[in-house]
Design a protein that fits this description.
The protein is mainly α and about 350 residues long. The protein is built from 16 helices and two strands. The protein has a domain of about 180 residues.
Amino acid sequence: MKTDFDLNITDPVFKEGQKINFLQRFFLRFINDKRDLPFVRLCIVICLTTIHAAIYMFVAEEFSWWMALIYFAYNSIFLMGPYILMLHNTSHGLFFKRKYNLLNKLVHWIIGPFFGETPESYFAHHLGMHHPENNLPDDLSSTMNYKRDSFTDFMKYFLKFFVFIVPELSSYLKRKGRKKLLRNYITGESLWYVLVTALMFLNWQAALVVFVIPLVFTRFMMMTGNWSQHAFIDLQTPDNCYRNSITCINSSYNKTCFNDGYHIGHHLHPTMHWTNLPVNFKENISRYAEENAVVFRKLDYFMIWILLMTKSYGVLSKYYVDLNPGKNKTKSEIIDLLKYRTGKYISPQV
């Protein structure tokens, strides 16, 4: 198998000296980091397209299911991924400067519900629970206890999350003494349900398309993502970030979703800026090799999920990056490794 040592990393990085236009200079006075200017552009696009179209569906004299289909397809295909990863990055670090702190509510409270994100839920789940627990048993979205190439197990995983996440996360935050996170989480969830219920009486078709269906779709897609990110676990060291997460390089997904493929690096360095992740990976390839980390090229998490659900290990092996030059694994060795890493974790007997 060919190694990636002789290939350039093509994922986006920030380059000093890039030209900044008048509009970008205007927004720089508000945001914390000039490397996050792509988030400004994304927010503008969403406000001019998604939010305007959603309002129109509520006030139109006659509801159009054709328009609803186009609206959902446009958001799902072009904007949902970038939005979720903008939400992810602005959860780990403030987007707008503290003196403009009210603007930080834009991504979480205003835009979020149009993409199936109830206010504060992502922050509470991702930073308040997932990162501290690192996919171990106390992680409410842990993949350890499931066979990760089983569609039946995935549906159990998704339905457990979808049905029980509110009471389970609330209980977790209360147990851990994270009172502010719990309060914000319950407030955001409650207001979403009150708002959507009220909008159902105004225009149930629009409320269904704009808020309810995106909630189901987004939570399903986020679970496929988390499933893939933590699908290949070394059962002997499940707490090792190099061995319980994966990295995807040179993927078009990284270009549109702010280097989200670098999940190992993100768990190791949660506050590292997304533009630094490719450089960090390249500088530490030898450590990734020592840890026998699972790295893929050109794949995104949903593609990996599909390949796992269809048990297409032969295809996965073609995109596997062997980080040990001169000691390259055979195709059968790669497949054996990947199959082993998807095995269900069984707690040792005490």
